[in-house]
Amino acid sequence: MRIELERRPEVSRLFSLLSPVIALALTMIFGGIMFLLLGKNPVTALYSFFIEPLMEVWSLHELAIKAAPLILIGVGLSVCYRSNNWNIGAEGQFIAGAIAGSILPVVFYEWHSPLVLPLMLLLGILGGALFAGIPAFLKAHLNTNEILTSLMLVYVAQLFLDWLVRGPWRNPGGLNFPETRTFDPVSVLPEMIASGRTHWGFGFAILAAVAIWFMMRYTLKGFEITVLGQSERAGRFAGFSSRKMIWFSMLLSGALAGLAGISEVSGAIQQLRPVISPGYGFTAIIVAFLGRLNPLGIVVAGLVLALTYLGGEAAQLSLGVSDKVTRVFQGLLLFFVLSCDTLIRYKIKLVWSNLTGTATEGAH
Amino acid sequence: MGIFEAILLTVITAATPLVLAAVGELVTERSGVLNLGVEGMMIMGAACAFIATQMTGSPYVGILAGIASGALFSLLFGFLTLTLVANQVATGLALTILGLGVSGMIGEAYVGQSGIKLPQIVFPVLSDIPFLGALLFKQDLIFYLSIAVVVGVNWFLFRSRAGLKLRSVGDSHASAHALGINVIRMRYLAVMFGGACAGLAGAQLSLVYTPQWVENMSAGRGWIALALVVFASWRPWRVVAGGYLFGAVSISQLHAQAFGIGIPSQFLSALPYLATIVVLILISHNRRTTLINTPASLGKPFVPDR
């Protein structure tokens, strides 16, 4: 048996909408098989993984808290990926934003003013953008592959954070634990909805998604991003500069990742620790693709991926399976999303080889 | 054994997985496919090699398991990018994410177990050569394999007919297809070879470098291997030079930490990653030489018209 692709004359609108749904369904089926192999009842396992976290108000708030960084980062990455700039170091930019924004509540902790919080957010945005500026500069001016440099900088950011919280920024009254002093109430991002913990990070995420959706759909900049991403040559004829686009897309995604970082630290954790992210920067890559690089799709995708984090925790408690299951689910999901995207541009045909089939193959 | 020899031995141990993974990826990229999933294939190799060794008691079975798991795992990538023409960059990332997840899950029961170290194979007479004997002829099987793979790949790419075909597929898949070469099959084989090498590199980590299973124990080595291929401008012997250079950097930072030279350990640990960036800058800043060396079809999808 052989698989052949036949290019569709036009991009299929039907499959543009269906492909993420098919991918989710396939992930569920394979996830069920995996639970079966682990000796669990797949139906109850999938129920506790994907449905149970949606049944209570407090866990819906947890969902929003986890979705906020995923959406913020994913929306920024979608601009990068659409313009063919492969920033995969958002995890590092998230950490850089968190560190830069924490300067005020950790170093200048005695300064109490309503200005503290807005300045923290601004510093977080700047920190993330500057950190993403390194691979942007290296790609735009020194022709260096941004995939590798942005990823290497993730390790650098993680080690720098580790040094800060164990060294100069360690809480002097904290019994030698590797963590900073807890943030003063003036530097804590307030809750958004009265019923629970959801902080303003989620609001920023929705705002960013809508703003970037508007930019992509209605502005010249959005057109420029799409054209340069599809064909750099065509973009050059239109007078667009791919070098400026590298700077624009990388700084934008870095700024959003930085905002995600400081929002998470200020809203959810309220101090710095050696590890402040369960891999949001990498999971956001999956979010961007599951949302088909469309900002509004990314909002939905961010909620789905946030559910895999909660589901992993829930399944660990109720079924005793490892929380590593979360990563497996996320990886499977990305695989199926990428395979299903083929359906949008191609018809897939199964060809059953026979003798004549091998004869035509020999002709190639 | 002198201290200098001892340090060189640790450099060799640190460099071997980098050389293996990079030379495998080099063959994949020479065929025009960019597989960013090296880290994922490597960590799968490390986990499967360790588990197979613990189950059978033989590290040689572990080596086979590492190679097989890397090759099988790379088939997933091959199916998506070659048969379904999915985006290679995104699929490579997916392979890494899935590999880190699956290895963490299957390895969880083995955390904290002490493993079996791959024994040395001592060549009689040769190992008595002063200095070089201990370095080159009293090593484990994976070290010898790494050298054999480099020699073999160099011969294959530049001295064999099949190697010429593989390079033509990587430089212009349309012309190669017109000449009757089966582009997709050639790329599948190259992807699987890269996967097997990355799996073997992973086996080295969990059987030689630190004979135990630790989650995420590849610690970015797969990504460094990818950078090494660029550094080596797609030539096997330069991969060896680069791999040993990086091995030396990562070992020297470990020794510096042990001596306590007053620089925070985190800064020293960041050195291999920073060195990777510096090396990439030095190699890539000249656009013209980069363009000449890079396989021209690298990362571009190919759909045969039938």
Would you summarize the structure shown here?
The complex is a heterodimer of chains A (364) and B (306). Chain A is mainly α and 364 residues long.
Q: What does this 3D model show about the protein?
A:
The complex is a heterodimer of chains A (364) and B (306). By secondary structure, chain A is mainly α. Chain A has a single domain (2-354), classed as ABC transporter involved in vitamin B12 uptake, BtuC (Orthogonal Bundle), CATH 1.10.3470. Helices cover 70% and strands 3% of the residues of chain A. A two-stranded antiparallel ribbon of chain A has the order 1-2. In chain A, helix 3 packs parallel to helix 7 (200-218), helix 3 (57-82) crosses helix 12 (295-319) and helix 5 (116-142) packs antiparallel against helix 6 (146-166). The longest helix of chain A is centred in the C-terminal third of the chain and has 28 residues, at 242-269. Residues 355-364 of chain A have low confidence and may be disordered. Chain B is mostly helical. Chain B has one domain: Orthogonal Bundle (ABC transporter involved in vitamin B12 uptake, BtuC), CATH 1.10.3470. Chain B is 72% helix and 2% strand. Chain B has helices at residues 3-30, 38-56, 59-83, 88-107, 132-136, 141-159, 161-171, 173-178, 183-209, 221-231, 236-259, 265-269, 271-284, 287-293, and strands at residues 120-122, 138-140. The longest helix of chain B has 28 residues, at 3-30. At the A-B interface, strand 1, helix 6, helix 11 and helix 13 of A face helix 3, helix 4, helix 10, helix 12 and helix 13 of B.
